[in-house]
Each structure stands twice: as structure tokens, then as C-alpha cells.
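Researcher: Next sequence.
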Amino acid sequence: MASHAGTLHLYHKRLVAFEYASSHPSSSNPPPNTLLWIGGLTDGLLTVPYPSSIASSLPPSWVLAEVLTSSSYKGWGTGSLTRDARELGACVAFFKALRPGAKVVLMGHSTGCQDIMEYVVGAGAAQRAPLDGAILQGGVSDREAWEDSVSGDADAQRKYDAVVAQARDMIAAGQEREVMPRKGNMLAEGLGGPMTAYRTNALLARGGDDDYFSSDLPDALFAGTFGKFPAATPVCFLLGNEDPYVPKAIDKKALLTRWTRIIREGGGVVDDVDGGVVEGAHHNLDGDPEEVVQDLVGRVMGFLKGLERGSEWGSAGSRL
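Model: Next structure:
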């Protein structure tokens, strides 16, 4: 356990963002750029260790703030990416107003990556404040992860299929916002907290609202998501080669290369120098060796420095 000095910002009504105290305190102008970190399902403030390592390594021109949304902790099961994107829009707008002219970059972990996708390319994206960059760390498919976890276990597969079917039936009956029964629901039992039929379907159904990263989706569908990233929002992918939520049959590097190609075909920009597969890294790097954490930190530093100097990332030195 550890304590961290910093500032708690109230960015919208009951929602806050915790900004780590800078390792280089200074009152000089210009104001620092802001890296906003968004966690995954069940995450909240300080639940993932590596953001503090990033915060302590940032240059004077950057600060890091962890964002709390209504979906944090157990709120995700009754929420949606649409709500997350709306709240993140308020957070980005808050920091842009707080530090006029400074950059704001979103870094997502796990479902925080789906939040970034929704923010940039989902419904209403044009009305949200533009981002100066996006880092997707541990962006994985919930559907493929759960399908892989029950594969080869007939009883688990039966229970999983029953949950998916029940969610679909409830939605068809107009009960998409109703909470699903907990008993026999392996998702609710495994992750904790109430889950609506809508969110269950969004996470587990092919083409569900959370289904941004599945490897079996066609290029034509990815063109409507990854292919919509504007050139003004460069992207950096970071995926651990030991991430247990990516099925072993999936070639991680090939998947990142595919997303990179589609973003570039749409006119977007990808940092393939700092981005890529992080050797030895698990999903949130909790418990990973310090050298693995520092590898991730160094990649984030490289991306942020590249944004400041206006790098035009290409194939030279590519990790993808």
C-alpha cells in the first residue's frame, strides 16, 4: 500500500480525477500537458500500480491524472461506453479549460481502451473535445477472452451460452436495462456487482457495443472504427505478450499491425516506434518485474515526447 500526493479535481458534479503531484514542481508557464488515465472493469483510483510509475517519470511538461467515472469500481455493469465517453468528454473539456493551449492525451487500460474508441469514433464524437493523442494499453476483446476461458469445458460453455441467450431474450422483451439474475451468471459471479442485460450483451455478443477489438472482425468493420481516427489524434498501442486475456491462438503483433494499417489507410497516425507488444507484460503489469514496468513507462515517455516534437511516425524503427 502507498500514499500519493496530488490534487483531486472535481471535473463534473460527483466525478473526480486525481492528478499526481509533479516530480518537477514549477509555477512557470506554459501550463503542463495532461495525460488522463482510464482504467478497466472494476478499476478505480490507484487500483492499477503502473500509472504512479509513469507519473513519477514524466518530464516537467506533463502531468498524469487518473479519471473516475460512474462506471468505476462496480458501476460498469449498469453503464455503457456511451456514458463513459460522455463523462470523459466533460473531463477532457475541464482540463483543456484549466490549461488553455496545453495538450490532453487519453491513456486507456483494458476497457479504458474501448472508452477511447467510443470517445473518438462513437456516436457524438464530433461534439466532444478533440484529443492530442491516445494510448491503448491492454485493449482486448471481452468476447474472445470469455469464449476462450470456457472452451473445452462443456459445462462452462453451457452456462456461458445460457447467459448470452438470457441477455438477448431480455433485450428483445424490452428489458435491456434490467439487472440479470446473479445465480448461475459466471460473469456477475466472477467480476462482482450488478449487470444489466444490455451490458452483458455489449460485452459478449459479436458486434456488441463493446466489441471493438475482436480479432475475428472483418477489415470492413475495423475501417469504420480504427479507420476513423483523425490524423490530429496519433495512436500508440501497447499490449503485453503475457496478457492472459488474449487467446494464445491470436498473434498479438499481427493484430496490432492490422489495426495500424487500417488507421493509416484512413489517414490516421500510429506510433509504431514506441508502440507494440511489451515483452513479459501481463494485462495490468501488477506483479511484473520492474524492468517490464519500466519498458512500458519508457514507451509512454517516447510517445509523449513524439507528440511534443510533432513526430511523423513511419516504418523506420518500427516494432510492428
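Model: The chain is about 35% helix and 15% strand. The first strand starts at residue 6 and ends at 12.
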